[in-house]
Amino acid sequence: MKNNKTVFINIIIFIAILIFVNLVSISVFTRIDLSKGHIYSLSKSSKLTAKNIEDRLVIKAYFSKNLPGEFADSRRYLEDLLSEYQAYSRGKLRFEFIDPSDEEHLKEEAKKNQIFPVSLRVIENDKFEVREVYMGLVFLYQDKTESIPLVQNTRGLEYDITRTIKKITAQGLKKIAFFQVLEEQNIPVMPNRPDPSDIYTTVRQLLSESYELSVVDLTSEIDKSVSVLVFAGIKDTLSDEQLYNLDQFIMSEGRVLFFQDRINADIQTQTANPIVSNLFDLFRHYGIQIKQNLITDAYCGQVQVQRMQGIFRIATPVYYPFFPVINNVNKENLIVKNLDQMQLIFASEIDTSRVKENQKFEPLLFTSQNSGEVKAPRLDISVSQYMNKNLRRMFIDDHKTVAGIYSGTFESYYRDKEDYPDAIPENPEARILIVTDSDFIQDIGGAGVKGNLDFVLNAVDYMASEGSLIEIRSRETEFKPLKELSNTSRNFVKWLNILLPSILLIIVGIFIYRKELRRRRFLGELYE
User: Fold this and answer.
1) Which residues of 331-369 are buried (b: 16+ CB within 10 A; e: fewer)?
2) Quick one: which H or E segment has residue 306?
3) For the chain, domain boundaries
């Protein structure tokens, strides 16, 4: 009887411990993540974002229950992710999953929150069908609403959620100004449609998700509330007024990202000429020098060349060294340490020997170890010269720097000039980031490459002192291409694959044969 009483007390204590552990686990959350980059647990910045929520935040996940198998994992991953946010928010964040498929009022609610069904083609039980499903998130905070209309996969999901939380809980977004030269176009602009002449739509749309974005022409002083200026590049000279406003923005602690060519090159006409602009006078005054050259790289993109073969015209792909593919980056810098795949188009080299005293230059992007250059005035960019050529043998120079950050003390271009008595003389904490390629952010150029877009977003976050988002984005943008082998190495691997299995079989056969001989010898000695 006494033993039964002891067992009963132990069971009660065990149940009490389980209840206590579950209560504690609601507010204390931990997870052991052994994956590379810890991509299955929240980053430090996401945890901090959750902790800093000041008021109640509700996340409604509109997800259908009848999702196809490939999307079911996304739902499970999202649920785990939101559980972590909830745990680190100290009770300020709550989430719920809602299936609006069979309830009209829930469909109306989802529609009101900008969540719409998507049609998916599904093959189940040997039957093909088109299924409408919901896969979206809505964030409700005070009187504000934000949404992620479609969650198709887990890549970048943590970044999207953290960015949205920061945006909806913030009192105000930082301001970014975007400068570009607007050329006259005869193309009509349709109402509620993007301007067809705007070649920076992708980049501007991405920036507008996290910042308050404006477009400036530098003909007037830039608003002092602007944190970063994105300079999209020019092919001509700025007016004195524009150059002065640019200089004074830098002197007034503004940060600038320059995407600027040194050579104006045209692949269609296969011609190239140096750009003549007073912008480079400003650069030289600051200690920034871009060489009058075009870099070439054996690791590059392709262009299509039309060739006649008999009576047929055939498009032939040709590796074009003026379109370098960048996977050589400064691993010590937060902006690029996990970005291994970017594309440049007609870029020039930064002369790192001209940095002034009290300044620092930190390189970001390099070409490969098989690089070269074409110098002005002989800028031959014809495609035909690279057809059927071994580019690794043609380009034997070391890597070249094509992007970097200048920081330190910058003296105004207008210092001590009588016509500009009110000019700010210097900025002891200036910061300028330069990429020697204006095509890098154009829709018809580098903006089609994900690595380029990640670079721009990281760079703006870095310059605007919003580095917490870079950590999240960088964890999931690694690109690990297979290492290219020389012809000798390829032949070695090929013959190794052919001969090694045969050699192993022969060795195993010899081993078995000798073992059988020993067995026969033993049996012979046994019966003699």
Assistant:
1) eebebbbbbbbbbbbbbbbbeeeebeeebebebbbbbbe
2) strand 300-309
3) 1-30, 36-167, 173-475, 486-528
**Within 34-128, where are the H helices?**
44-51, 69-88, 104-112
Residue 62 bridge partners (DSSP) = 98, 136
pLDDT at 448 over 70: yes
Given CA atoms 16, 22, 25, 27 in this order, what sign does their dihedral have?
negative
Residues 291 and 348 sit within 8 Å (Cβ to Cβ): yes
226 in helix, strand or coil? strand
Residue-level pLDDT at 5: 67
Of 464, 456, 462, the closest CA to residue 440 belongs to 456
Predicted structure pTM score: 0.74
Sheet holding 93-98, edge to edge: 93-98, 57-63, 135-141, 144-148
pLDDT 10s digits, 306-354: 776 767 778 889 999 999 999 999 999 989 988 878 999 999 999 998 8
* CATH code given to domain 36-167: 3.40.30.10
In degrees and rounded to multiples of 5, residue 16 shows phi and psi of -60, -40
Contact 132, 117 (CB under 8 A): yes
Percentage of residues of the chain with pLDDT beyond 70:
86
Dump strand ranges (E) for 253-376.
Answer: 255-259, 263-266, 271-274, 293-297, 300-309, 312-326, 328-329, 342-343, 359-366, 371-375
Question: Alpha-carbon torsion 273, 278, 283, 287, what sign?
Answer: positive
* Residue closest to 64 by CA, chosen among 124, 117, 130: 117
Residue type, 337: K
- Domain 173-475 listed as CATH 2.30.110: no
Distance CA 457, CA 160 (A): 13
The torsion defined by the Cα of 62, 66, 72 and 76, in degrees rounded to 10, comes to 50
Which residue type sits at 147? Answer: S
Check whether 73 has a pLDDT greater than 50: yes
pLDDT mean over 473-490? 61
Structure tokens at 485: 């082998």
Type of residue found at 68 = P
What is the predicted pLDDT for the residue at 185? 42
Return d(Cα 412, Cα 425) in angstroms, integer: 5
Q: What is the pLDDT of residue 184?
A: 44
Closest listed residue to residue 364, CA positions, set 325, 402, 407: 402
pLDDT digits 0-9 by tens, 36-57: 555 567 888 788 888 889 899 9
